[in-house]
Amino acid sequence: MGGTPVASTPAAPKVARVPDMSGVPLLPRDLLFGDAARTAVRISPDGSKLSWLAPVDGMLNLWVAPVADPAAAKPVTAEKKRPLSRYFWAPDSQSLLIALDNDGDENWRLFSVPATGGAMRTLVAAKDSTVTVEAISPLVGDRIVVGLNDRDPKWHDLYSVDLATGHRTLLLRNDGQYARWMFDEKLNLRLARKNGADGGYDLHRADGFKVEATPFETIAFEESQTTRPLGFGGNGRTLYWSDARGRDTAALFAVDVATGARTLVAEDARADLGGLLTDPTTGDAEAFELNYTTVEYRPVGGAIAGDIAILKQRFGNDFYLGSRSSDNRRWVVVVDPIKAPGEYWLYDRPTKALTRLFLSRPDLEGKPLAAMHPLEIKSRDGLTLVSYLTLPPGSDADADGVPDHPVPMVVIVHGGPWGRSEYGSSPTHQLLANRGYAVLEPNFRASTGFGKAFVAAGNGEWGRKMQDDLLDAVDWAVARGVTSQDKVAIMGGSYGGYATLAALTMTPDRFACGVDMVGPSNLETLLASMPAHWESMRNQLYRRMGDPRTPEGLAWLKERSPVYLADRITKPLLIGQGAKDPRVKVSEAEQIVDAMTRRSIPVTYILFPDEGHGLRRAPNRIGWNAIQEQFLANCLGGRAEPVGTSFAASSGQVKVGGSLIAGLAPAEAETAGK
């Protein structure tokens, strides 16, 4: 018996293909990227009114309704140029405060409008300056505290603003170069933060808007992304901290202000704790958010433990608290089932009654939306990369999180990079999955929320290990049978745009194509042109990236800048940019486009003249995604809704490469729309 074993021939790897989606209707992109029917729903401090953003003549405006009759809502603003996005209730519930900038330039101005409607009145505005709302208290109904950098563009002075008259009173001239502030429930300044030359920061006590010269806490650079005070409770007697000193992940601590005694409230070895729910008037901690792969509310004490239990029983963990009345009796609850449109509910604590208010996007009800799968991927050096995978509807018959046959895949890279991807509805995931692609969104090293060691692992690793994490995520997907190596695209905005450019220049054979929105191409010019009011962050950016004041740092910045490697690009590239972007200026896109066109390397470049760091206007979002899905269809072979008139309705300008996208004008520098 026996004999020489016969070697088996390894099976050839399966090539990814778009699954049969003949039974899955093509989702119109305007259902995903047009303005929601209702969004940003909030309850007034006195609990009597609801507000939200909804379109008026095609532009997001502010609506108000009685809590007892949401159907009686009326628009209270009539903005026609820029969609509203940032708003909040005045503490007396008689008016709403609105922040607006100019076409995305982030020079924020503050306006007021009566809750009954009327003309928007300017509260605080100054040319080429930005207003920050620093403190609002339900116990102080007639005024708020704002910051304004009109005197010195690098630093915000503090002012008290009378909500009835708009009169502004100087509280503190910021000659001490303080970056952040913390107030108590009576709008008294209690803490001031000053960032240090080493990338860490000092905390100074304040009394009567006089800041003590000597700091009482010094937070080292290593803890600066994970350790911070969260706010005062116990009517100012307790200071809550998210604190990673002496540990990796940030735990929740309560510190007695008088004695300095520290009490550990909660901790988790996997994730930083920071999202604190507090009593609206006393500031006492009532619950916190644990956000590892998904978000979960956990009570602190018994004040709202029963209410959290009721919401969990009804919605699982697919909810979050949008806003609460000052007496804590009425809550707006936002439910995100992912495979269905988001819902808004009103929760009445005394009666425990839940009333469904409305859907955010009712036109998506019953549509074939895809699930999101949270997962963990190991990097080559052993880090855990919390990631999210979305698969085309109908491609995973046994619902095990792996398609029945490999499909083309798009890797999405989040911005920041000091931020994170999270579990929750994503119009981009839904569009791409509907077109036949898997979507993988990994949290690479430097992402926040997973402990200080994970953040620190990204220091100095732009274009290197941070990119390796993305490649490791792709390798995981290929080995798992999600996709094949030749059918993977990469895309992202801001840092994600940088990662896309880095991928196509530093690893030109690993991705089939790339999509960059507002991504920096030259790290030296990125740091040299950052907004003036980012001055307090400069030293930390230099330590986490490269310091252009030193030869070594300057060499690092140039080495990691895709613009100097443009000749290596061999795969299709689509670039989008907002002309008014103050963070990643238009020159970042122009530099790499120019470098490519000089070398006759094909690229498509779209400029939006009325946008900043991302796309706020619905026609621009729809038009951009029309181009994006056609670009990906050319690259990966998925389905696409024809561009049609979508791009013509936007403000987008085809600067270069329109002939490369079906449905765009072939002439260079041709402007579509207005």
What does this molecule look like?
The chain has 674 residues and is an alpha+beta fold. It contains eleven helices and 38 strands. Among the domains are: 39-175, Neuraminidase; 372-522 and 561-671, Alpha/Beta hydrolase fold, catalytic domain (Rossmann fold). Helix content is 16%, strand content 31%. A hairpin with a 4-residue loop joins strand 27 (343-348) and strand 28. It is globular, with a radius of gyration of 26 Å. It starts with 28 loop residues before the first helix and ends with a strand.
Please render the helix and strand layout as text.
Elements: H1 29-33, E1 39-43, E2 49-56, E3 59-66, E4 74-75, E5 86-89, E6 95-100, E7 109-114, E8 121-124, E9 131-135, E10 143-152, E11 155-162, E12 168-172, E13 180-183, E14 189-195, E15 201-207, E16 210-211, E17 217-219, E18 228-233, E19 238-243, E20 251-256, E21 262-266, E22 276-278, E23 285-291, E24 295-299, H2 305-315, E25 319-324, E26 330-335, E27 343-348, E28 353-359, E29 372-378, E30 384-390, E31 409-413, H3 427-434, E32 438-442, H4 452-456, H5 465-480, E33 488-493, H6 495-506, E34 513-517, H7 523-528, H8 538-544, H9 551-559, E35 573-578, H10 586-598, E36 604-608, H11 618-636, E37 653-656, E38 670-671
Parallel strand pairs: 31-32, 31-33, 33-34, 34-35, 35-36
Antiparallel strand pairs: 1-2, 2-3, 3-4, 5-6, 6-7, 7-8, 9-10, 10-11, 11-12, 13-14, 14-15, 15-16, 15-17, 18-19, 19-20, 20-21, 22-23, 23-24, 25-26, 26-27, 27-28, 29-30, 30-32, 36-37, 37-38
